[in-house]
Amino acid sequence: DVKVTQSSRYLVKRTGEKVFLECVQDMDHENMFWYRQDPGLGLRLIYFSYDVKMKEKGDIPEGYSVSREKKERFSLILESASTNQTSMYLCASSSGGTGSNEQFFGPGTRLTVL
Amino acid sequence: AQKITQTQPGMFVQEKEAVTLDCTYDTSDQSYGLFWYKQPSSGEMIFLIYQGSYDEQNATEGRYSLNFQKARKSANLVISASQLGDSAMYFCAMRGHNFNKFYFGSGTKLNVKP
Questions:
Q1: Which of A43, A50, A108 sits opposite B104 (nearest CB)?
Q2: Where are the beta strands (DSSP E) in B1-107?
Q3: Which of B98, B56, B36 is nearest to A98 (CA)?
């Protein structure tokens, strides 16, 4: 059974803390993505990576950074967490190319910043 | 610019009836893919159906079908014979010329009434 796993389902952090969200996929996918999901706004892309050590900014990269040192692992980093980063964070992966290469999602991490 | 629009924030449908969830998209790409995902209250994102821009026939997967009208740039999801378990958030998404990147709509919350 193919899987995308995220390190935590729920996380509570304090303003100013450095936060790491980890995502691991076992499908040998080239592409990995980080989204945040907020009510009424759908999924907004933060960053994505199409290869090891390669990354591209999505639509809302401010306040976030990412790391992809191994193909199966993609980390999202909040350098100094703020209350407006309280959200649901979803990781996804997909294979490259055309066709019905859908994204596979992790279970999500609900982050609360106090 | 790539954009997905879902104009129905919430919908109700009677159990066993059919329901159509609207999705329109904006793209200048000739080649693109359209996807629908379901997100139950548990939070996981479940892939439902895919339509390629060059596919001449509407995609179907069990009780799900995609009403693809290319000239109108619409990709509506039709669920036949609704079940209580269909109550969930539904997201329309598009993958454009940059095959790595997906664009999501804001979602439609479907409630199936017994």
A1: A43
A2: 3-5, 10-14, 19-21, 24-26, 33-39, 46-52, 60-61, 64-69, 74-79, 88-95, 102-104
A3: B98
Residue B55, C-beta contacts closer than 8 angstroms, at least 6 positions apart = B68
The tokens describing A1, both together, are 């059974």
Q: How far is B68 from B92, CA to CA, in rounded Å?
A: 12
Residues found in chain B:
114
> Count of CB contacts below 8 A, A vs B?
61
Closest CA to A26 of A76, A74, A77, A97: A74
**Is the CB of A108 inside 8 Å of chain B's CB atoms?**
yes
Q: What is the phi/psi pair of residue A110, to 5°?
A: -90, 110
B64 interface with A at CB cutoff 8 Å: no
Residue B99: pLDDT band (50, 70, 90) is low
Confidence of residue A1 (pLDDT cuts 50, 70, 90): low
Least Cα distance to A77 among A46, A103, A42 occurs for A46
